[in-house]
Amino acid sequence: MVNAPETAESPAPERRASARAEAVAASGVLGAPKLHPFGDLHALQHLSARAARGVRATFEGLLRKECRAWAEPLEVVRLGDYRAGRAELLTAWTSLGMDGRPVLCVVDGALLLVLLDLFFGGSGDEPATLPREFSPAAEALAERFGTGIAQALETAWEPLARAAFSVGRCESNAANVNGADAEDVVVVTRFGVARGEAKPVFVDVLYPVATLKPHATELTGKVVAKPVEVEPEWRTALTRAAMTVRMPVRSVLAEPVVSLQRLMALKPGDVIPIDFGNDVPVKVGASLLGSGTVGTSNGKAAIRLTKLEGFEA
């Protein structure tokens, strides 16, 4: 159940172990063909982390409760291996178009039925026996859920590329999904969602490599986020605070040099002659501020600035 707390007998890990670990490991075997041309996928992982915020909002809209969401590490597998990892479990396969190219949103059938029960005011209990296919109400909810995921993805992709995501039909049989072939290589982006101490649930978005190829340049480059606009009030407060910082100002009148022999022989009353010009240096820390003339002001020794040099690095 989405809202059921964990029990001692069935602890819920924050990350779900992948049933496709063998397929993923095989893709990294020395000599195995590379499944995608997108390098280390850091850019896509960054986009998934951004999309997790929208996924959380989609769940909160259905659960009417606050949740937390995160993006799992990406996996690259063949669609046939991914489907085999899900065995014969009831699954909602919703088509999401990305500029007209296929993307899949995959939701566990049990999770979709729990969300459906909550949507109609139920307690969110998982059915004891899963049906063989979804009802029209469940398919409609899957498409509504897919709309929320599509909006989250479109917002997440905006800094990298202006991609338009659309929502298609929900199918319980992956073979009926248009544009999804078992031999297609897909990048699996998995999102985890949990509320409080409840057991986390997971939603997968599958990007076929062919769908991502038009964005290969962006995905293999550096991730550049939108510049954040600084609030004027914050900038003003920071400037005012910086202006109150006290800086040490000093001036060295002279630095005479004496031999070690004379230094060792010094005693009270001895005189060390010094010589300095009309202007003496004035420093702030280790930086030269300028120079000035030694004099008095209000009965105290002072320096009148005659030249400003500015701060040196």
Give the strand content.
15-25%
Low-confidence stretches: 1-13, 17-32
Which CATH first-tier class of the largest domain would you pick? Alpha Beta
Q: What would the CATH topology of the largest domain be?
A: Chemotaxis protein chec
**Number of domain units:** 2
- The ordered string of helix (H) and strand (E) elements is HHEEHEEHHEEEHHHEHEEE
What sort of overall outline do the alpha carbons produce when their principal axes are compared?
elongated
Structural class: alpha+beta
Helix content: 25-40%
- What's the number of extended β-strand segments? 11
Mean pLDDT: 81
From the N-terminal CA to the C-terminal CA, the straight-line distance is 62 Å
| Helix segment tally | 9
CATH homologous superfamily of the largest domain - what is it?
CheC-like
The CATH architecture classification of the largest domain is 3-Layer(aba) Sandwich
Largest sheet: 7 strands, antiparallel
Condensed summary:
Belongs to the FliM family. The chain is α+β, with helices and mostly antiparallel strands.
Key traits:
disordered N terminus, chemotaxis, Chemotaxis protein chec, FliN-like_C, 7-stranded antiparallel β-sheet, SpoA-like_sf, alpha+beta, 313 residues, bacterial flagellum, Surface presentation of antigens (SPOA)
